[in-house]
Amino acid sequence: MKTIFEKSNNADGINFVNETKKIDFLPDELLRNSHLNLPQLSELDVMRHYKELSDMNFCIEKGFYPLGSCTMKYNPKVNEFLSSLDGFDIHPDANDDFAQGSLKLMYNLGNALKEVTGMDALTLQPSAGAHGELTGMMIVKKYFDTIGETRTKVIIPDSAHGTNPASAKMAGFDIIEIKSNDKGQIDIDALKSVLNSDVAAIMMTNPNTLGIFEEKVKEISDVMHANGSLLYYDGANFNAIMGYTNPKLMGFDVVHLNLHKTFSTPHGGGGPGAGVVAVVSKLKDYLPKPVIDFDGKKYFRNYNIKHSIGSVKDYCGNFGVLVRAYAYILMMGKNLKNATENAVLNANYLKEKLKKYYNLPYDEPCMHEFVITGEKQKEENGVSTLHIAKALMDGNTHPPTVYFPLIVHEAMMIEPTESENKQVLDEFVSNMIDIANECKINPQKVLDSPYTTPVKKIDEVSAARHPDLNFKG
Ligand SMILES: *Cc1c(COP(=O)(O)O)cnc(C)c1O
Fold first, then answer.
1. Atom 8 (ligand 1): residue with closest C-alpha?
2. CA dihedral sign, ordered 76, 82, 84, 90
3. Rounded to a whole number, what is the distance in angstroms from the first to the last CA of the chain?
4. pLDDT at 31
5. Cβ neighbours of residue 421 under 8 Å, at least 6 residues apart?
6. Taking CB atoms and a 6 Å cutoff, what residues make up the pocket around ligand 1?
7. How many angstroms is it from 233 CA to the middle of ligand 1?
8. Residue 16: left (phi > 0), alpha (psi -120 to 50), or beta?
9. I need a labelling partner for 174 at 20 to 30 A (CA). Which of 56, 214, 346, 355 fits?
10. CB burial class (10 A; 0-12, 13-18, 19+) of residue 107?
11. Among 69, 254, 255, 318, which is best to mutate for testing ligand 1, by the most ligand atoms less than 8 A from CB?
12. Ligand 1 pocket: which of 156, 161, 210, 401 to mutate (most atoms <8 Å of CB)?
């Protein structure tokens, strides 16, 4: 009998290090004849290395994340647990009969999202907001092709997110950009002046990317519809209106929602996300297939969509994201309205506190986010918005979105979300005030920041011009 010390150090008694198994299905000349010279590290060393790297990363769990337009709200951890429950890992090729639970979840989620948008039908397939935009604009294109109208142009305001013109262009449209007026809203005369029978649609974000509600939205929708055109709603800012109004009431025909923004599923670093697209009934026959349906007894994937633009993503989209969003909706229930309310309240609170220190280009009540600028600091102290953003990082805060929207110089776009309490907001205000004061007293200190953040300033121009894609450098 071997003692414990003589036994092999793994359960099967195989010594992995010394065992060289003959691999007989590969030709000899392709086999190595010496060992790979891999670095030898202990598990603990490796673990510490990755922990250290992850500690350098900023995330909502570490601090305030007011990244405008991105709605970095807290993603409840219980959603992670729910999305990994047994049964939700069903193979996507499984027969509908075996997937009733998952199909039911998608069907119910769809119904909830129809309720909050006011729309009549939807697809859960697209995997991001931009993907939803492309899907929506392909639907618009196919609709006009099918009814035999040649409409080649899409109107987009100059405050729009860059993905809007990109998506419309990819769907085959030409873009007409229109200017915003001095209230930061769509100039309705500018809109009317470009309207003709060539115009397929307008793409709008409401509230827009300045965080301002487009007061003329109803008039805009009347004018567009009278012209035979459609209205696309970029729902990335849905967190500002949920439960108070909806895109249907505003007159929109196609909507995308970012579940990874408004409905609290993790995002950043490129996904996965979900850019659900909802439409009014006259566009429902153009949705991507399959659509999740229910015949009174059974949930099923419906491929019988008359004018479908086809599939835009494999299977039913990013299912794990859908589970998280559904969990969030069920947990919140009627409190979804409170989320909206607090998101708007928090943004207005910060705006009022900061406007004495930074320029506020549009001094209006804002919705869930607002834009201030570092113009004063740049002109008077030579400190640009980029430096202010970098300085904020030392205060355990993710910087706001900077230099967007493009129509505002030195823009800082701040979106606190509903997740944060007053203490966090006040700390942010005090950091921002300290930086504004520092700009006057000792601008060099701000220019040299950050001091304690792992990465100081990267050479973004070189990084873009000479991307180094080799990990060995
Ligand atoms: C985030 C955002 C998008 C794009 O959404 P993704 O999911 O990042 O592709 C589009 N429009 C606006 C206004 C946004 O904020």
1. 129
2. negative
3. 53
4. 84
5. none
6. 69, 128-130, 161, 163, 205, 209, 234, 236-237, 258, 273, 275
7. 12
8. alpha
9. 214
10. middle
11. 69
12. 161
Pick the residue whose CA is nearest to atom 2 on ligand 1.
236
pLDDT tens-digit series, residues 319-356? 999 999 999 999 999 899 999 999 999 999 999 999 99
Taking each helix axis from N to C terminus, what angle separates 319-332 and 100-117, rounded to the nearest 10 degrees?
60
Stretch 256-262: mean pLDDT:
97
pTM for the whole structure: 0.90
* Strand stretches in 101-197, DSSP E: 121-123, 153-157, 174-178
Cis peptide before 290 (omega within 30 of 0): yes
Check whether 236 has a pLDDT greater than 80: yes
* Whether the predicted pLDDT of 23 surpasses 70: no
- Phi (first) and psi of residue 316, to 5 degrees: -110, 20
- Walk me through the domains of the chain, giving residue ranges and CATH numbers: 78-334 (3.40.640.10), 337-464 (3.90.1150.10)
Ligand 1 atom nearest residue 130's Cα: 9
Which pair of tokens denotes residue 84? 């990994």
User: Which residue owns the Cα nearest ligand 1 atom 7?
Assistant: 129
What number does the ligand 1 atom closest to the CA of 128 have? 7
Distance of alpha carbon 127 from alpha carbon 288, whole angstroms: 13
Question: Given a cut of 90, is residue 18 above it in pLDDT?
Answer: no
Band (pLDDT 50/70/90 cuts) for residue 473 is: very low
Averaged pLDDT for residues 51-58: 91
**By the 8 A CB rule, do 186 and 130 touch?**
no
- Over residues 348-386, the pLDDT tens digits come to 999 999 999 999 999 999 999 999 999 999 999 999 999
Tens of pLDDT, residues 182-232: 999 999 999 999 999 999 999 999 999 999 999 999 999 999 999 999 999
